[in-house]
Amino acid sequence: MNPTTPDIRLVVLDMAGTTVADGGLVEEAFAAAARHMGEEPGSGPDSMLDYVRATMGESKISVFRHLFGAEAKAQDANKAFEAAYAELVDGGRVAALPGARETIETLKSQGRTVVLTTGFARTTQDAILTALGWQNLADLTLCPADAGGRGRPYPDMVLTAFLRTGVADDVRQLAVVGDTSYDMLSGVRAGAGLVAGVLTGAHDADALSEAGAAQVLGSVAELPVLLAELSPQTRSTRSAIDSTTFVGR
User: What InterPro entries does the entry give (predicted)?
Assistant: First the structure.
């Protein structure tokens, strides 16, 4: 974010890998879905599981369309995946990443609007929110179906957050934060003023930067301080201090 970028009013946060730790449940649920379809997920290069890992962050139905082709088969696989994932969630296998809840609360206390997004279906997203007690934590939650059906790496969910909340006058007043290359691409394509990656999920710093991350953080817990430091008010205060210091010399 450069000095002319407007203050961030809207923060769009990914869930699994960014604010939520699911302990590899995506891979477990995918394996169950693949077996439901009569396939073995595999584990080596060019396997189905390898593709799933590479496309973490993408809408799950899009992943199944790539793997199974025909729409009916993709929908069947997606339903099996969602059912398996929901069962794992019900088993208490999800948790908030350290500092995630506090981060969202701090962002809201700073006057920012927070939206949680996911590549999962609405029923799965709601199951995760319920398991964490986060039903009323964010200002808005979105899944691909809420944005016309297209998930990441398309910008649709980010732009839907922009339109539905109405708190920003310019897409540069948005921050998009996630743990995957697809999160970064969706933020860049939406024209967000800040696109930041976190290292608590699927992809490493190089992958996040190559996909457009302007900042790479250790975790989402570092975000409130970063946004406070980048705010125009903070920069103006620092400039005034620097000017006074220089004159005093």
Answer: HAD-like_hydrolase_sf (IPR050155), HAD-like_sf (IPR036412), HAD_sf (IPR023214), PhnX-like (IPR022468)
For residues 107, 114, 53, 37, the Cα torsion angle rounded to the nearest 10 degrees is 150
Residues 204 and 165 grouped into a single domain: yes
Residue 10 host element (H or E): strand 10-14
3-class SS letters over 150-184: CCCCCCHHHHHHHHHHCCCCCHHHEEEEECCHHHH
pLDDT tens per residue across span 21-54: 977 888 888 888 888 888 877 765 568 888 887 7
Range of the domain at 172: 10-21+94-236
- Domain count for the chain, please give it: 2
Please identify, among 34, 55, 90, the residue that sits at the C-terminal boundary of a domain: 90
Residue with tokens 């996040």: 208
Amino acid making up residue 169:
D
- How many CB atoms neighbour CB 64 within 10 A? 25
CATH number reported for the structural domain that contains residue 33 in this entry: 1.10.150
> How many CB atoms lie under 10 A from the CB of residue 122?
15
Assigned domain for 56 exists: yes
Residue 175 backbone dihedrals phi, psi, to 5 degrees = -120, 135
Q: Report which of 86, 79, 7, 65 is spatially closest to residue 36, judged by C-alpha positions.
A: 79
Q: Are residues 64 and 142 in the same domain?
A: no
Alpha-carbon gap, residue 211 to 20, rounded angstroms: 22
Read off the pLDDT of residues 164-221 as tens digits, 9 standing for 90 and up: 999 999 999 999 999 999 999 999 999 999 999 999 988 999 999 999 999 999 999 9
Select from 50, 72, 90 the last residue of a domain: 90
Average of per-residue pLDDT values in the chain:
87
